Amino acid sequence: MKPTIKTDHLWNSFEQAIEGHHSDWETFKQAYQLSQLPISQQNELKALQYLPNLTLLDHQEEAVKKVLHNMHGRAILADEVGLGKTIEAGVILKELMIKGLVRRALILVPPSLLSQWESELNQTFYIPARAKHRSYPWESYEIVIASIDLAKKEPHASSLQEQSFDCVIVDEAHRLKNPKTKNFKFVQQLQSTYCLLLTATPIQNSIDDVYYLMKIVRPGLLGDRRLFHKRVNHRHDEAIQSLIRQSMVRTRKRDIETQWGERHIDTMYVDFSSDEQGFYEKLASSETNHQLTALTYEREFCSSREALYVSLQKQDEQHAMLEEIGQLPHHAKALKAIELIQSLDEPVIIFTEYKSTQVYLQWLCQQNNIRAIPYNGDFKKSKKQWMLQLFQQHGDVLITTDAGTEGLNLQYCHHMIHYDLPWNPMRLEQRIGRIHRYGQTQDINIYYLILSNTIEEHIWEVLYEKLSAFEGLIGEIDHILSSYGLSNFEDEITTIYEESRSKAEADIKINNLMSVIEYEHLEEETKDETN
Amino acid sequence: MKQTDLKPFIKQFFTKHHAQIKDERDDLLTVQLTKSLDQQLMNRPFYWQYVNTMGFEGEPMTVSFAFSDQYDLHTERIHLGSPRLHQIFQIVKDEGVFATLFDQTDSTDNMLDPWFVFNGYIQYQGAWLEEESVSVGILLTNGTMRFAWMDAVMDIPFNPVIPSYQFKLPIIISLEHGLEKIINELQSRIEKQSKEFVKESLTLYEQEVSLLNTLSHEQDEESKQFYNHSHDQIYNRLYPRIDINLINAGLFYTNRQTTQRLTNA
């Protein structure tokens, strides 16, 4: 059979060329040579040449090549959390764009990841992707990022389904596994040549889950529903697995663990000075109408006098305490932090929960001749960049809050101090992920500063000690909770404290919650083993 | 192109476009743009529209390009991935898309032969992706064709002005006709060498369609639409497709010696 060889567009470009301006020999030669850059051999990966600042890990490069060359651009990317699914998707998209095969792409992500995707595609991959703005129609974008919750609503859904895309990428695609949901129906009806579904958990409850994801990626690969169920019932698991592998790439952390630097964790207990301890106990026993308010005050004081001061100031009747705060000496934990920074001769990142603490720490550092750079989510983009620049070139310490650090890459740093503990352990994992990420080969040091005999020590005991026993568990918490219809860990803990009359009651409830998470995690592990 | 080639390339580009180099260090180049470069590169149409309406001169921007990691906020980092570099690449490609040039090497003869030169690439999409670069010249007097034309003439000086005491031989085959002949030749070569590609792609394509057909008994409207979309998607990705694309083209006049060298090899 003869192939169809297209030349129509060739004549158009020729006619345009001949009418245009006539160039000199140097320019003509240069134009010719520059056009050789994207020319590639069979199944050669070109994108990496265009991404000089990106180094792919072996499993990532392998995944990218598999998706492009064996799966022809439609696949489920199912690496475990933290192994760089986004990176893989970015390289695949970049490659298809360099080849001129993708001009229009739609990227559907959870709302919380919108800006992260936007900045990652732009800054890491130089792909001019924009988040959907409500005043512009979908047609006006080439590479558009939107939350799936927005896109599936009318009039957006119909408008998107009428258009055709060269590539559709769906992040957190396990949200599509239920065929009865709007999510699934919407994505199924999108027209797109290439398609990538990203999920760390392609199989959540049963092997059934993957059927519908696969139906979008490679319709018919698993047969129709009846046939699939027959296979599942007859325990033709191996046959199904091998089919799935034709269109899914999955790497586990344990497969590549050796390449990662180790985490050294150092928990440091600090005692309040007697003045502070006295004040703390007064604060803890003071009358508040709410268990949660009291807790909040205690946590704030564990961070800094300033954090508590700012919060008390908002309440009128607390004047007496305000006076007292002014009399207190420097915060014991802050002094400990300074001591720690001085003992390390390398750049350090400090995370705190409170902006007032951030200011206080910065001041205290300066008093001790430590060059401290502040960073937080309120800074404008250019200021953020400038601060990071300063830190990398001249800084000893980067003092930052959690907001605005998502997606930051601070791999050149090997020390991190958790000045306060967040209530959500996932946040802790995200913090550590700033320095312990793809390709970090050096060992890293994590320090926890914990005030003895305070709420902080208590939280440490009930939340963290248990969790840290299970590797990889923290990343899955939200995910496990959502299968119970709970939104996120932090809200859950807050609610528990709000609804409990005493700390003891709250502890029991938290303990129960932890047991559930533990149980689910073990279940998942065994499921993974058998797969 | 390597990272070390970028600075000379950028410098040459701006010098050629009459921009003033204001500062040059090992890994830094500060350039005062011209109005036309500003309009092409800096993406501020509203400013220029305003300036033009008001009848002002307008002030083109000054830009610093950094060629190493050591940069601050006020420079643009240039490396192989940076969008700015590709913007400049595109300007060069657009400017160099057509040329009429004359051989300047010494010649005992005074006649110049007309060549139509086509540079392009063939893109294969199907079972795999592949591109192939082609450069073909056709002598517009007798239709002689020469492949790898550019490689053979890279070192020859060409100029848009015809050398003194030389004259052009008349064109017998038109440029359009020349291109047609080249395309025909390319097509027959592609057909010969792409048999495996076509066969494998068709097999893959048919396999995927038959997988899809296992779902075809679902007959409601939604399923039908899904079937059609899926069918399109499979066709777009896997059905063997071969495109011939233009990089640039030109009318080149070479003297007898050069012509002989080109037609003999």
From TrEMBL, chain A:
Keyword Nucleotide-binding among record annotations: yes
InterPro entries per UniProt: DEXDc_RapA, Helicase_ATP-bd, Helicase_C-like, P-loop_NTPase, SNF2-like_sf, SNF2/RAD54-like_C, SNF2_N
Record bears the keyword Hydrolase: yes
Family matches, as SMART domains: DEXDc, HELICc
Keywords associated with the record: ATP-binding, Helicase, Hydrolase, Nucleotide-binding
Domain Helicase ATP-binding stretches: 66-220
Helicase C-terminal domain segment(s): 336-485
GO molecular function, one term: helicase activity
UniProt protein name: SNF2 family DNA or RNA helicase
Natural source organism: Alkalibacillus salilacus
UniProtKB/TrEMBL annotation, chain B:
A Pfam cross-reference name: YqhG
Protein name: Uncharacterized protein
Organism annotation: Alkalibacillus salilacus
